[in-house]
Amino acid sequence: MDKFGFTISKGRQINYDQNDRRIYNYIIENEPSFRNCIACGGCSGSCSAGNFTRFSLRELNILINRGENDLPRTNLKKCMLCGKCTLICPRGVNTRNVVFLAKQAFKRFDSYAF
Amino acid sequence: MHFDPFVIPFNIGLYFILIYTVVRCITWFRDLSRPDKLRLQRGFFGRAFGQSLKEIFMESLLHRRILKTNLRLGYMHMSLAFGWFLLILFGTIEADIFSQSHLNAPYKAIFFKFFNPTHGQTEFERAYSFMMDFILAFILSGLLLAVLKRFSSRVVGMKKTTRLKLTDKIALTSLWMIFPSRLLAESFTSGVYGTGSFLTGTLGSWLNTFLPSDHLAYVFWWLYSISLGTFFILLPLTRYMHIPIELFLIFMRNSGIKTGDKTGTFSEVQTYSCSSCGICIDKCQLSSSAGINSVQSSYLMKAIRNDDDVFNIAHNCLMCGRCDQSCPVGIELMPIRMIQRREGEGNGDMRTIWRGYFRERQNPALVRVPEEPSFGYLPEKKFRQADVLYFAGCMTHLTPLIKNAMVKIFTAAKENFYFVDEDGGVCCGRPLMLAGQDREARELINYNSEIIWKSGAHTLVTSCPICYKIFKESYHIGAEVLHHTQYIKRLIDDGSLRLNYSHRKVVYHNPCELGRGSGVYNEPLDVLSFVAELQNTQFDGPNSLCCGGSLGNIKIDTVSRNKIAADVTAELTACNPDVLATACPLCKRTLANATDCQVADIAEIVAGEISLIQRKKSRISVLNIRELAEIS
């Protein structure tokens, strides 16, 4: 049975009451254009860091929006702030500031420092 | 008469400010690093001393640089500074010549008329009074401009003037009171004794006809003394501290002290030397195009002085360097802003003592958590031996026409080149540095440096001025760093690249990082005039505009960026050029979004004009010479 090749996926649900939305709120407060994101993935497509590793601003955006901060916390520092995503973004999101603020927010709200 | 109680406020203020300035300068001197101390000592007793005195006369008194940029504003500053200086100088001489004793206390010179009311009877005395009146009139004319400027900055030809805080306003009012109260005090005294020249004499005799001059004179002498005293005591808390501190700055600068990358005495002296003249505000495109009026350099200096939160101000700047280049005091505004951006620096490390009269540097130990490298994921470094490396840069990958053009140029010039970041490379690190994240930037710098070192190339060509600046300044690589415009210029000069001439009209937009940032002005223009008809604009050279797309500003939104870009393109395309040329992929993208005119990089224009007949590359190597010798 264990060699069947399929497993049952772990149950997963997003609980907005428990998730930590402080990071998202901090970003929104200081960079309202973050709301405009339509998750088109242009940022991830053009990303210099994403060329080498798993790093996608689109993914981080969705996760931070949900308040699931574990991956963003470790992944954000991979960003080189090169600014290609800001130029690409069709919705005029100031993505560099989003990353910058997210890093700050993690520093401010977490004991975790990076 | 030798003394009157009304001189007390003036004396308190004067001795306070003298002692304060000396104490402040001594503490600053003590804070200097050892090499800087030596520099200053050497400068003080060396050739720099004469230079500094000249600069103090030309800049602190005559305000030559402000006069050059804005005549009316310059006149305002000059009349107040130079006029006041002359008034003090000739007042002291007057007191020395005409009083009973020599070497008088300063108040005897300032209030000379009060202590010698009958002065002005003989011909010589009358001539001297005329001169003193003339100087006073000179100051008052500048003061009139200053008062009008507060209500409408257009009077002195400025779009905006600096906003003030309460202490600034009180100090400003006391400064404004000084000269009118002197005028009235002297006039009333002259009126009573029938002395005084064309200004005080005439006004005095007229006022004496209907006012009790004798009593009023005393009131205005008190007012004069109180305004002087108040002004001196508030001086350290306001922008007027630049009056004594600028002298110290000039000596330090001429001794060869630089701002560096940490807060220290020199950066602090510079923040105190800012007179908030507002020229930086006028030059700032955030102000003129995007309507952002709280982040300009003079506000940054003020926020640093007042220990306010400078984070947002420091980061909301295009880093175009227009203010830095136009600052009449010569403050290194860009390095100071960069210091404020760096994490762990700037805000919060100063402690204000005694209501802000003294500040103490706390130097908190930086908490450095042992961190994993941020960019540990980067792949194994690939490199290839080549003569010339081409580093396109992140932004160039978004404008593929530029990199294709460069590849075409390299091929046409038959250069042995290696395209370092052909498959999407690693960022140069400057964007991180501009955001104040130096540690992360250093990681990228090390990564790229190794590739460049190992390739053994003698030249590194880059298409992006942002990369160019950091390669030049922060990389220690064995190769010569060239921007592609410089490289193309060389190819043209040594005949490796033959180009056709097109009769298209071209206007050049000078990117900030290339022009003001790295001092490359001529090569792009030379290349352009070689292939096309170059049109001049009023924004050539150091006065060039910022496209608005700058990576230096992490805070402004797209709307503001677009406004700046629209204004810039409107200015540059006013003469209807066929092509708006630039030398930066970021500028190209930003400008192209804002205009219907064709925007192209110089590399593209050159690549389009490559002549089909190229000369064969003739390099006589050592081997060739030997072969030739064997054959012969």
Structure, explained:
- The complex is a heterodimer of chains A (114) and B (632).
- Chain A has one domain.
- Chain A contains 6 helices and no strands.
- Chain A has helices at 22-30, 42-46, 57-66, 70-75, 84-88, 95-109.
- The longest helix of chain A has 15 residues, at 95-109.
- The radius of gyration of chain B is 31 Å and the shape is elongated.
- In chain B, helix 9 (166-193) packs antiparallel against helix 11 and helix 25 (484-493) packs across helix 26.
- Chain B contains 30 helices and 10 strands.
- In chain B, strand 7, helix 26 (522-531) and strand 8 (533-535) form a beta-alpha-beta unit.
- Chain B has 4 domains: 5-243; 260-361, Fumarate Reductase Iron-sulfur Protein, Chain B, domain 2 (Orthogonal Bundle), CATH 1.10.1060; 388-493, Rossmann fold (3-Layer(aba) Sandwich), CATH 3.40.50; 505-608, Rossmann fold (3-Layer(aba) Sandwich).
- The chains are: A mainly alpha (114), B alpha/beta (632).
- The interface between A and B is medium-sized, with 23 and 33 residues.
Structural class of chain B: alpha/beta
Radius of gyration based on Cα positions of chain B: 31 Å
Number of helices of chain B: 30
Beginning-to-end CA distance, first to last residue of chain A: 44 Å
Topology:
The complex is a heterodimer of chains A (114) and B (632).
Chain A: H1 22-30, H2 42-46, H3 57-66, H4 70-75, H5 84-88, H6 95-109
Helix pairs in contact in A: 1-6
Chain B: H1 8-31, H2 34-44, H3 47-61, H4 64-69, H5 71-98, H6 106-110, H7 112-115, H8 123-151, H9 166-193, H10 200-208, H11 213-234, H12 242-254, H13 265-273, H14 279-283, H15 285-288, H16 297-305, H17 311-315, H18 322-326, H19 333-341, E1 350-353, E2 358-361, E3 388-391, H20 394-398, H21 400-412, E4 417-419, H22 430-434, H23 438-455, E5 459-462, H24 465-474, E6 480-483, H25 484-493, E7 505-509, H26 522-531, E8 533-535, H27 558-572, E9 579-582, H28 585-592, E10 598-601, H29 602-608, H30 622-631
Parallel strand pairs in B: 3-4, 3-5, 5-6, 7-8, 7-9, 9-10
Antiparallel strand pairs in B: 1-2
Helix pairs in contact in B: 1-11, 3-12, 5-8, 8-9, 9-10, 9-11, 12-13, 13-16, 21-29, 25-26
